[in-house]
Amino acid sequence: MARRRRRDCSCGIGGQAVLEGVMMKNKDLYAVVVRKPDGELVMDTEEYHGIIHGSKFKKIPFVRGIFNFLDSLILGSRTLTYSASFYEDEEAKETALDKAAKGIFKDKTEKIFMGITITLSLVLAVAVFMVLPYFLGNLFHSFVRNTTVLALIEGLIRIGIFVLYILLISRMQDIKRVYMYHGAEHKCINCIEKGRPLTVHNVMRSSRLHKRCGTSFMLFVMLVSIILFIFIRVDNPIWRVAVRILLVPVIAGISYEIIRFAGNHSNNFLVKLISAPGMWMQTLTTKEPTKEMVEVAIKSVEAVFDWKEYLYDTFGYEIDDSWLQDEEEANQADGALQGASS
Questions:
Q1: Which residues neighbour 205 within 8 Å (Cβ) at sequence distance 6 or greater?
Q2: pLDDT at residue 209 tops 50
C-alpha cells in the first residue's frame, strides 16, 4: 500500500519559463521543451547534479539555499541558451571574438562564456539591488537621523527598484510570452499538487500563482535584507557597503528556507500571510497561457515526473489511460459546443 503524504506538501518539482518553452526539474533530472518557429516541439532531457553534488552542504539548512540559488542560475542560463538557439538569426556571422575564443578555449568555450555571463549578472544584480539602494537611501541622512528609519527607507528603495525593473521588462513582447509560459509552468505544478489529473483542461483552470516561485524568493530577499540591515550596523561607510555585499549569501540562504517552508505548508495561515506580497508580485511576472503553451509545459513535466504515481501516493486514487482519453474527448466536445455557441 502506498504511503500517503501530506496534501499541502510540495510535489518536489520546479521549473522555469524559457524562450517559447518550459523547463521542468525533478531531483537531478531536467527537461526543457521548446516550440520551434515551425510549430514542432523539441525536447532536451539531461541530468544536472549541481555544483556541490554529493556534498553534505546540500543538506545543511541555510547553507543549502546558497548553492541551490547558484544552481538555479547555472541551469537557467543553460536552458535559456538552448531555447534561444532555435530563434537565432540564421544570417548572423561568427565574429572575430567568437573565433578567437574557440581557438583559446576549444570545446569549453560555451561553458567559459556562460560562467562569465553568470558572474557579470551576479555582480550587476548586487550593484543594482544591494549597493545602489544604500547610496540612494543615504541621501536622506541629512533629514533622517534614526538608523532604523534609514534602513527602512533603503529597503523600500530596493523593493521599488525591483518592481520598476519587473514593470519595464514586462513591456517587451518576448518577455510577455515568457511570462505566459511562466504561468503555464505554475499551473501544471498547482494542478498536480491540488490532486487533479494533468490534462490541458485541468491545468487551464488551475492558479498561475505558486508559493515556491522565484519571484517570491527575490521579494523575500528584499524583505530579509531590510530586517538584517536594521540589526547589523557598522559606523564606517565603506564597511556598510561591504556588509551589504558579504551578507548576500546569508540573505539568500534565509530566503530559501522561508520559501521551502512555504511550499511544504501551503495551508498554514502564517505561510499564507508571509507569502501574500510574493503572490502579488507574481501577478506581474506570470500571465494566463494559451492551451498550446500548456501542452508544452505538460510535456516537460511528464518527461521528469510521474504525476499519476504522485496522485496515487498523495491522494489515493489511480488514473489510467482510458480515463484520460475519455476526459480529453469530453473537454474537446465542451470546447466545440462553446465555440459553436459563441
A1: none
A2: yes
* Gap between the Cα atoms of 93 and 104, Å rounded: 19
Query: Model confidence over 113-128: pLDDT tens digits?
Result: 778 888 898 999 999 9
Residues 83, 181 contacting (CB under 8 angstroms): no
In 47-146, where does DSSP find H-type helix?
Answer: 63-84, 96-105, 109-126, 132-138
Res. 1 pLDDT band, cuts 50 70 90? very low
CA 318 to chain centre: 30
Give CA–CA dist 292/300, Å, rounded: 13
**pTM, full prediction:** 0.88
What distance, in Å, lies between the first and last C-alpha atoms of the chain?
48
Q: All 3 cell numbers of residue 271?
A: 505561510
Q: Cell 550596523 appears where?
A: 233
Q: Are 52 and 63 in contact (CB under 8 A)?
A: no
Higher-pLDDT residue of 233, 289? 289
DSSP class of residue 144?
-
Residue 13: DSSP 8-state: E
- 226-268 pLDDT per residue, tens: 999 999 988 898 999 999 999 999 999 999 999 999 888 888 8
| Strands, sheet with 41-47, edge to edge from the N-terminal-most edge strand | 13-18, 21-26, 29-35, 41-47
Higher pLDDT, residue 161 or 55: 161
DSSP conformation class of 40: -
Cα separation, 16 vs 80, whole angstroms = 9
Q: What would the DSSP string read from start to end of 259-288?
A: HHHHHH-TT-HHHHHHHHHHHHHHHHH--P
